[in-house]
Amino acid sequence: MSTAALASDVPDRPAAAGTLDRFSYDDDVVRKFLAATVVWGIVGMLVGVVVALQLADPRFNVGEWFSFGRLRPLHTNAVIFAFAGNAIFAAVYYSSQRLLKARMFSDLLSRIHFWGWQLIIVGAALTLPFGITQSKEYAELEWFLDIAVVLVWVVFAVNFFGTLARRRERHLYVALWFYIATIVAIAILYIFNNLAMPAGWFRSYSIYAGTQDAFMQWWYGHNAVAFFLTTPFLGLMYYFLPKAADKPVFSYRLSIVHFWSLVFIYIWAGPHHLHYTALPEWASTLGMLFSVMLWMPSWGGMINGLLTLRGAWNRVATDPVLKFFVVGITFYGMSTFEGPLLSVKTVNALSHYTDWTIAHVHAGALGWVGFMTFGMLYWLAPRLFQTPLAKPGWANLHFWTGTIGILLYIIPIYAAGLTQGLMWRAFDAEGYLQYPDFIETVTVLLPLYWIRVIGGSLYFFGAIVCGVNLFLTWRNAPKAYDVPVHEAAPLAPRWTPAPLEPSEIPAGSTLPIARKLDVFARMSWHRNWEALPLTFTIWTAISIGVASLFEIVPMFTIKSDIPRIASVTPYTPLELMGRDLYISEGCVNCHSQMIRPLRAETERYGEYSKPGEFVYDHPFQWGSRRIGPDLARVGKKIPSPLWHLRHFNEPTDTSPGSIMPAYRHLIDQDLDLAHAAASVAAMRRIGVPYSDDEVAAAERLAAAQAEEIAERIVVEQGSEGMHDRKVVALIAYLLRLGTDLDKPVPVEEDGGAMLASRDEQEVGR
Amino acid sequence: MTQIALARMLAAVPAPSADAAASASSGAGFWPTVSMLFFIAVFLGVVAWLAFSKKERWARDASIPLSESPVEPRMPARGEERSR
Question: Which of A221, A406, B28, B69 pairs with A271 at a CA distance of 20 to 30 A?
Fold first, then answer.
């Protein structure tokens, strides 16, 4: 084997018969992804600290573009798709080449992938603060960026699978299975969840509505966690942990169970995000059952990771890479224990909409994703920059500040979540809500929010230390990197799967069942799959696809799952424009629109929400947390337009102690009614029953309703001239929320009511 | 708990969910059971196969990352690195 080091890369070159191929790896693209990981990680965590400050003190909401509702999606997108995403690509590009003994399929595709992904991130950073969002969690990017994501993902997939085709190692190592699952699953999830109808360059409406949209979103949202924040990082673990520990993985057999169980089970679990909502009961139960089963593969993976360190534990005390990996895998175990726990309905009744979920997410994100990434970066940097780490001691500093930062983050937020949940459901001795004023359940959390700021800042400081350390290491790198040339035998063009081995147990020496078991154990189906990437990918796709279809097909075909309500009608053009503003401002980041059939909620917010109330909600706005109160019936509870106007001007005027930012820009800015027709027309194209006349008259109808609300504001002793302000549209939308059930049932032309009774309204037609 | 409180609690208990009724009438309620049994059958089959298979068969695959390349990028020792 040659060990010659060349000054330039050697591309993959097929060998003449009987000779070895000579090739080098493309580490330049790995260096690029490494740098991007660090830079975007610091940016994403900085925004995280800012939004944490905004919750502790609303005065940190500075201006229109930097309010919590707009920055929170920027934070989540930056840390998920920019920080974790670039880390995934660095891991995949580095490890795949070495596991496959082949340079990446195309250097050009690698560069298109890198720069394309960075442009998408910049696009997200430029659109989200401007309120250009689809409002679906972790899928906020608007349609034009979605198309870019799909194109870049296809480039990545072609590059990856092309490399598999050119490999010189017959068997695909377990890390590659997880990469395959990631690429296949994310493609399916991202495309189907983001199907939307554009209503202009910067706005689109999900083709799904209400309950179905909620189901699709959490099918995606949960599996974005599964296949973007879990499977690729497990692949990372299965490659970099054995390398760092210099030990083979503890149990390859366990990794097979781990992989297939995880890929098959995870995809079912999404509905556990929607317990007690208007989702059908069967889907909710299915999500809970499979979530509980996830304990099994998740802990199998954790055990496999930790036991890989057998015989190397003495090095954990001194090697920062192993320290990061050990704590990262431990957090994986903790998070994957807690996740199924939270999916149990009775636990979820307490935890849902509270900060408990936020603490859970951050235990996984900061502990598992963050620490696995940092461990990988510290392992890669000396090898990629071909010089020792500039400040080894700083890596230890980073480890400890990060660890303490995580604890200071999650412990107070767990406490905050439990406090919220218990206060929301507390009743006094007379049977009344003990804390009827929602603000009471907010202000009590503020000291805990400040501790979170400290914890988050410590974690952020650690990331900066890492960034400076890697920058100094890069500064010490040689002017020209050595590029080792590798040699390996090419694979034979044809490969025959291993035949079924006969039993070695002599016939008649034991029971026939023993011989059959022996033959069963000698079956090589999985080893054969490992040598056949296409077969392996197809089975992975089937595992993901079958599980998805088992839930999606019934959800879209069983009409009685979403009983329609005759009195629920499409939004008026002005309400639709107000809904667009609600989405742009990111109100869903703090307010839910889903009253669960739990006594504490019906007492506080009113009648529980029905699936039929949301059939025109493209996209749904049920939300996932309540920093502020639920708004599903706010129109019925607070029917005064002046109250809402005062609230947007200064929230503490109407709700002393509120941490909501003021939305004065909505009062200052003109309402552009010219968009009304485009919005109504787009809604009609996805099935909302607007007539031709309503589309044509959208602008006029919107103006008339704006005038009517403005007059009501004046009658209530409010300001004049609100009819052409943006805020009037948002007020129109809020006044509509929750009022449909009390409307008179539409009467058909022959004079007969569509549905005569309230019971019929609920059961539907 | 006073009688008033008890009466309020009873009055406030919501009616059975329309969703639950719909699930029952649609026949989709068997879905969780069928899905779980399907998964458990496949899972137990795989576990049994792996449990009976010989560990040595997997040893080479488990070591792929450690023997993946005859040439690792050379790691200069401290002081040996070239200036940039």
Answer: A406
Which of A478, A485, A608 faces B82 most closely, judged by CB atoms?
A: A478
Looking at the complex, does the CB of residue B67 fall below 8 Å from at least one CB of chain A? no
Q: How far is B52 from chain A (nearest CA, A)?
A: 5
**Encoding tokens for residue A334?**
């903790």
pLDDT at A749 over 70: no
CA distances from A340 to A305, A307, A334, A433 (A): 20, 23, 11, 30
What was the pLDDT predicted at A494? 82
Structure tokens at A165: 């085709």
In whole angstroms, what is the distance from residue A94 CA to residue A478 CA?
20
Cα angle A329-A333-A335, degrees, rounded to a multiple of 5: 110
Q: Which residues of A touch B71 (CB under 8 A)?
A: 1-3, 484-486
Q: Closest to B68 (Cβ–Cβ): which among A99, A431, A487?
A: A99
Query: What gap in Å lies between CA A651 and CA A460, rounded to an integer?
Result: 31
Using CA coordinates, name the residue in chain A closest to B48.
A521
Query: Which string of DSSP letters, residue by residue, matches A304-353?
Result: HHHHTTTTTHHHHTT-HHHHHHHHHHHHHHHHHHHHHHHHSHHHHHHHTB
* Angstrom distance (rounded) from CA A702 to CA A696: 11
* This prediction's pTM: 0.89
Calpha distance A610→A606 (Å, rounded) = 12
Query: CA–CA distance from A268 to each of A90, A257, A264, A543, A623 (Å)?
Result: 29, 17, 8, 11, 20
Question: What does the mean pLDDT of chain A come to?
Answer: 91
Specify the 3-state DSSP secondary structure of A688: coil
B9 to A561: CB separation less than 8 angstroms, yes or no: no
Torsion of CA A501, A505, A510, A515, to 10 degrees: -10
In this predicted structure, the answer to whether residue B16 has a pLDDT above a threshold of 90 is no
Which residues are paired to A62 by β-bridges? A66
Place of tokens 């297939």: A260
